[in-house]
Design goal:
The protein is of the alpha/beta class. It has a domain of 219 residues: Rossmann fold (3-Layer(aba) Sandwich), CATH 3.40.50. The protein is 44% helix and 16% strand. The chain contains eleven helices and twelve strands. The strands form three sheets. The chain has a seven-stranded parallel sheet with strand order 3-2-1-4-5-6-10, with helices on both faces. A three-stranded mixed sheet has the order 7-9-11. The two termini are 34 Å apart.
Length: 326
C-alpha cells in the first residue's frame, strides 16, 4: 500500500513519514520546488514536486496512492502577506481533499490543530466537543486552521473517508524550523530566556503524534476529530522540567502581561516597516492569557494513542536540538 504525504519536509510530517516506513508502507511525499529536504535525507521514499496551492500538481502527485496524510500547513504567527496563510492552510486543504475524493482514496487523515478547537472558560482541559466561537478566534493562524477544519468536515459529509487529528504542542526530533514550541526549547538551551510569560499548554511527544496519524487511518471514524495530546503543563512547569533535564537554571522572572502586550504591538509595528519578524507577536501574547489545556482521552480510548511522559518527550527534544538541531 502506498501513502501520499504532504508536509513531509516539516516537523510533524517527517515523523509521520518515518512511522509509515516503520510499518512497511511505501511513501510518496509532495515537496515544493526548492524545499529544504534535510528531514527526508536518506529515506527510501518517492518525492513528487508540487504545491498544495496548485490543485493540478496535487492530483498528479497523489495518483496511485491509497492512503492520504495531509500534514502540510503554514504554522506561523507572523506571515506576510497575510493572505498566504489562508492560501496554504485553507485552499491547500481543499485542493488535497478534492483530489482524494476524485481519485477514490481509501482513507484520508487531515492534520488540524488544537488551535481549531474551543477552550473552557473555567480552565479545565477542553476536548473535541468544546464549543468554539469563530468570532473570537485570535490571529490568522488559528482562523485559517479553523476554516480548514470546516473544509475537512464538509468533505466527510460528501462521503470522503477523512479523519481529523488535532495535535497539541509536539516536541521532539526534526523540528528544523523550529516551531514556536521548539523555539522555547532552543532559546532555553541557548540561555536566551531570562524571563517568561506564564501560560499553559499540552505537551506531546512528536513520535506519539506520528503514531496517532497511523492509528487514525486504521481505527478512526470518518468525520471525527481526535486530539493527539499528552500532559498539560504551565510554562513554569515546562521550564523547570527543562532545567532538570539539562542542568541549566530556569528563568525566575515572570513577565507582566499588559506591558508585554504593549511592547509586542510596538515590535510588530517596527517589523512591518523594516520587514523583520517579531520574536513575540500580539497574537501569541493574547493567546498566552488562556491556558491551552486539552484532554486526549478520546484518542487514547478509541485509537490507542501512546502517552509518553512529557519529561521524556522534552528530553528527546533536548537531545535532538543539542546533537542535530538547527
Amino acid at each position: 500500500m502506498r501513502a501520499f504525504v504532504t508536509g513531509g519536509t516539516g516537523f510533524i510530517g517527517a515523523n509521520v513519514v518515518r512511522a509509515l516506513l516503520a510499518r512497511g508502507l511505501k511513501v510518496r511525499a509532495l515537496v515544493r520546488p526548492g524545499a529544504d529536504l534535510r528531514n527526508l535525507e536518506g529515506l527510501d521514499i518517492e518525492l513528487a514536486q508540487g504545491d498544495v496551492r496548485d490543485a493540478s500538481s496535487v492530483r498528479r502527485a497523489m495518483e496511485g496512492c491509497e492512503l492520504v496524510f495531509h500534514v502540510a500547513a503554514l504554522y506561523s504567527f507572523w506571515v506576510r502577506p497575510r493572505s498566504l496563510i489562508y492560501e496554504v492552510n485553507v485552499d491547500g486543504t481543499r485542493n488535497v481533499l478534492q483530489a482524494a475524493l476524485e481519485l477514490g482514496a481509501e482513507r484520508v487523515v487531515y492534520t488540524s490543530s488544537v488551535a481549531a478547537l474551543g477552550l473552557r472558560e473555567d480552565g479545565r482541559p477542553a476536548d473535541e466537543d468544546t464549543p468554539v466561537d469563530p468570532k473570537v478566534i485570535v490571529g490568522d493562524y488559528k482562523k485559517s486552521k479553523y476554516l480548514a477544519q470546516q473544509v475537512a468536515l464538509a468533505y466527510a459529509k460528501k462521503g470522503l473517508p477523512v479523519v481529523i487529528v488535532n495535535p497539541t504542542f509536539p516536541v521532539g526530533p526534526y523540528d528544523i524550523k523550529p516551531t514556536p514550541t521548539g523555539q522555547v526549547i532552543r532559546d532555553f538551551l541557548d540561555r536566551r530566556m531570562p524571563a517568561y510569560l506564564e501560560t499553559g499548554m499540552n505537551v506531546v511527544a512528536a513520535a506519539d503524534v506520528a503514531e496517532g496519524h497511523l492509528l487514525a487511518a486504521e481505527r478512526g471514524r470518518s468525520g471525527e476529530k481526535y486530539i493527539l495530546g499528552g500532559e498539560n503543563l504551565t510554562m513554569r512547569e515546562l521550564l523547570e522540567t527543562l532545567a532538570e533535564i539539562t542542568g541549566l537554571p530556569a528563568p525566575k522572572v515572570r513577565l507582566p502581561y499588559w506591558p508585554i502586550l504593549a511592547l509586542s504591538y510596538l515590535n510588530a509595528g517596527i517589523c512591518r516597516l523594516t520587514g523583520g519578524t517579531p520574536r513575540m507577536t500580539p497574537d501569541t501574547v493574547w493567546m498566552s492569557r488562556h491556558y491551552m489545556f486539552f484532554s486526549p482521552r478520546k484518542a487514547v480510548e478509541e485509537l490507542g494513542l501512546p502517552q509518553t511522559p512529557a519529561r521524556e518527550a522534552l528530553a528527546r527534544a533536548v537531545d535532538w536540538f543539542r546533537t542535530k538541531g538547527p
